[in-house]
Write a structure and sequence with these properties.
The complex is a heterodimer. By secondary structure, chain A is mainly α. Chain A has helices at residues 2-19, 71-84, 86-89, 105-108, 116-119, 136-147, 158-170, 196-211, 246-256, 267-278, 290-295, and strands at 125-127, 132-134, 218-219, 226-228. Chain B has helices at 2-5, 10-27, 36-39, 59-70, 91-94, 110-114, 119-131, 143-155, 166-169, 188-200, 210-215, 220-232; strands spanning 104-105, 134-135, 203-204, 236-237. Classes of the chains: A mainly alpha, B mainly alpha.
Chain lengths: 302, 240
């Protein structure tokens, strides 16, 4: 029996040796030259799972061409204009260089970039920030005050009315007062405490080519405004904004940055890079008085 | 050296680069045919043949593309691990390891030509074509095609995480900086071909692999719609 097995093994080895090439070599004629080398297979990215989105996973808001022709439709259109070009349509309430759609990506439609269709049906809502129940309109006011570093439009102003109409129209068909998938930002784990040292390296590697090395974004050469929004400095959101918190920034970056390559940062990379961004200088929190802001600026200002 | 140190002379140097580039573009030299043969007398491209326009493009972009076209593809026979190693188990060894593509772009017509160009030639040609002004001639297309192309250009596909074209290629598709080339005023066939090349792996020279990630999500209809939309845009570019 032993002899039989031995003979069989020798035979198998011989056949195998004759039929196959050594595993380390690749026959040239079976291998096509490709320009794309696997740049995505770096660091831990090799073992990373980028989720595939299946149809129907996220709510799909109505088409822009389907905005009704009515007074309501006009308000929706104005709201959309304000939303994507805040610098022009709500100029007097804005104190920096940003537009609403810089964070609420793709006209407020992108899942996990605080989409309007997931937010609007949830209001009025309790907010931890103000320890109070706020309406949608009051929430939009806060966006102007903190994220746009400007002045809140009054509740009866056409700007608030228009943005509310736009959010109302985007939510057409969305379930009322029900948490939808894609609401707000992505959920993150936190394997260790974040470090800005790693964050700086990451920032220079993958963020600086658009937002520039000094974080001031890039301005158009042929028109006013920013092509790529500033992340810190005087034209960016202030210290009271949601995006100024490391957590929100990391959650946003995880799902959306670099643009078009969402979910390619690890959770820890998102935390690290946002810690680096948080350490930079930006406008003060308007909730504190001017005295406090000037003489006791928020930690991390440089 | 002169361009770096001579502050007053920089415009004169640019002028000489532009005129040298113009000479090369119009007459060609040895194995290098004149650019005007395919890219048009004023760098406007040929819509029907799908030859891209070069007039008014960013000089840095043109330089990079010519260098990438001249670069050899990696040799056949490179083995890529199909089973990913768990690098997180050995963080010290691999935490700083990042592989960047040197920038590779292959084209049956352009690659052999680009290999005959010197560094100075490339600089001169880029300076010349960047200095040219350009006015787009909008190409008519089907209404529904334009409508769908516009939807993709302005909003992308948010439900699939595909960003809008305008978020990098500027609001009118006029391009931005050396990394984001213009889409407006380019032939439909050229735009579609380039996206095909990314999908097939014949082009890999984009910033952070952004366009590779975007191309992988585009369907055949998407490519045609969005290319037709941008060929339909009017555009006026002033030379630098």
């Amino acid at each position: 029996m032993k002899k039989l097995v031995f003979l069989f093994m020798v035979g198998a080895l011989n056949i195998g040796h004759a039929a196959e090439l050594p595993q380390t070599e690749v026959r040239v004629d079976t291998h096509e030259a490709r320009a794309s080398i696997p740049t995505s297979l770096t660091r831990e990215k090799a073992i990373r799972q980028i989720p595939a989105i299946s149809p129907g996973e996220y709510f799909v808001p109505p088409d822009v061409g389907d905005i009704p022709t009515s007074k309501y439709g006009d308000m929706v259109k104005l709201g959309r204009n304000i939303f994507i070009d805040t610098q022009h349509y709500a100029k007097r309430y804005v104190g920096n260089g940003l537009n609403c759609s810089n964070c609420h990506l793709q006209e407020g439609r992108k899942a996990y970039a605080a989409p309007l269709w997931a937010a609007y049906p949830m209001y009025p809502e309790f907010r931890n920030k103000t320890r109070d129940v706020v309406t949608f309109e009051a929430r939009v006011q806060d966006c102007f005050r903190f994220s746009m570093n400007g002045i809140a439009p009054t509740l009866d102003s056409p700007e608030i009315k228009a943005i509310t109409s736009y959010a109302h129209w985007l939510s057409t068909g969305a379930p009322f007062n029900k948490e939808l998938p894609g609401r707000g930002f992505a959920r993150l784990g936190k394997p260790r405490d974040p470090t800005p040292i790693n964050g700086e390296k990451l920032y220079k590697e993958s963020c600086a080519s658009c937002h520039s090395l000094d974080g001031q974004g890039q301005k158009f050469t042929n028109r006013d405004g920013y092509m790529f929004p500033p992340l810190w400095g005087k034209d960016s959101f202030n210290h009271g904004a949601g995006m100024s918190s490391v957590k929100s920034c990391a959650q946003f970056s995880k799902a959306n940055m670099p643009l078009g390559k969402g979910w390619t940062l690890t959770d820890m990379e998102a935390w690290d890079v946002c810690t680096y961004i948080w350490l930079q200088d930006r406008p003060w929190d308007p909730r504190f008085g001017w005295f406090f802001n000037i003489f006791a600026p928020p930690t991390g200002g440089n | 050296m002169v361009t770096l140190t001579g502050c007053g002379k920089s415009s004169a140097v640019d002028q000489s680069a532009i005129s040298a580039g113009q000479l090369l573009a119009e007459k060609g030299r040895g194995a290098v045919p004149g650019c005007v043969a395919c890219h048009g007398a004023h760098g406007e491209g040929i819509e029907a043949a799908g030859y891209p326009r070069l007039a008014g493009l960013n000089s840095g972009y043109i330089e990079k593309q010519l260098k990438d076209l001249a670069r050899e593809l990696p040799p056949a026979g490179v083995v890529i691990e199909s089973v990913a190693r768990d690098y997180s188990k050995t963080p010290r060894l691999y935490s700083d390891l990042t592989v960047f593509s040197p920038g590779l772009r292959h084209d049956d017509i352009m690659s052999p030509i680009a290999k005959h160009l010197s560094e100075t030639d490339i600089h001169n040609l880029a300076a010349y074509f960047a200095s040219l002004s350009y006015t787009a001639k909008p190409v008519a297309a089907d209404f529904q095609v334009l409508e769908r192309g516009q939807d993709l250009a302005l909003r992308g596909k948010p439900e699939y995480g595909l960003p809008a074209c305008v978020s990098c290629h500027a609001p009118d598709g006029e391009g931005f900086g050396a990394d984001f080339p213009p889409l407006a005023g380019q032939p439909v066939m050229y735009t579609v071909n380039q996206i095909n090349k990314w999908q097939l792996g014949q082009r890999d020279n984009d910033n952070l692999g952004l366009m590779k990630a975007v191309s992988d999500q585009l369907t055949d209809a998407d490519k045609l719609n969005v290319a037709a939309y941008y060929a339909n845009r009017s555009l006026v570019v002033k030379g630098q």
